Protein 1
Amino acid sequence: DRRRFLALTHSFLLRDTGIFIHVSSASERTMRQILILPVTVLALSAPIAHASKPRVAVLGVQTSGIDPASAPLLTEVLTVEIDRLGRFRVVAGSDVQAMLGFEKQKDLLGCNDAACIAEIGGALGVEKIVVSHIGLLGSTYVVNIKLIDIQKVETQARVYESVKGEMDNLLGSIRASVHTLFANAEPAPLPAAVTV
């Protein structure tokens, strides 16, 4: 019975790509030949595509006028929104802490300029770092996010947003700010050639 079951049903799981293929029925051999080639190509190309993405570190959100206990959650929201862009390998949270070590984390507390942050980026082995500050003035949240290019040691793009109201509005503002930040970071297109 077990042999018959195995002959009728086969499952293939590719862990790295998250693809699950289930093949059953009498035409199993033909289906397997049709499916194996594209799946193999996909499995081999996924690590290459992943490796070609630049690495970006998301440092913890600095806050003022907001309950400090909300900073890790705000950092997580920011991290997820950057990861959703699908353009970067994102390093954040406990990964950053583990990679930096205690001494570098102490240095990070007084680190505000691009050169200092670039040094931290070098220690993390990333191409870019996202630094952010969210404050509350009266009933208005102020969101300030910077993207720092480690190789050029300069701020590549920055976004400043203000939003009134509840924390829900702030979360929407973070999402919009991430899209604006990375849109601003795109190089300007070259002007079209003029023919005479």
Note: The mean pLDDT is 74.
Protein 2
Amino acid sequence: RNCNTIHEMSLDVGQEENLKIVGKGGKRLVWKPLEFDGAVKALKMFQYRPDREDDFGPVSIELQRRDAIIHELTASSPYTVNMFGYCSTSAVYDFGDGGHMQENILRDGPIPRDDLLRIAHRVASSVADVHNFDDSGRATVVHSDIHGQQWMKVKGEYQLTDFNLAKFLKRSKKKIKKLKRKIKKKIIIYLIRLET
């Protein structure tokens, strides 16, 4: 979807139940609006601050574009949050109705071992899906902002989100072969040193 998704959302500030700030990141606010079809979605928008007018410039637009691209490329993953549209520095996502992982762990205290194992599996699977969405067997993207607030609980399961600081890794096959040779050489030198 495109900017129309954002413009079709109910942003009637006069009706408290339709619009609430439910979270805040480094530069963006997270709003809980009702989408035009009645489904609850999260709307992330840059917070306007007169001292940071450059937040709405080309760099911020590029960061949001990266976020949108990675959400699109990982849309089939059950371990990443769905994005439903973006426009400039704003985007619409699944609403994390269960909060974020860091908040939940700090609030709930000790977690049973089985639950920890299930959470660890979801965390590892989400990172793997983001790193290897192109099935090349090598990392394609680095998230660059991994911490407990990046996993939102959506419909009872943690999902990774917030890819605006991610970096795409670009390597040619020639560079990969050269890197493999270099690594093999270092391993051989290391093994020889162990034997002596």
Note: The two ends are 62 Å apart (CA to CA).
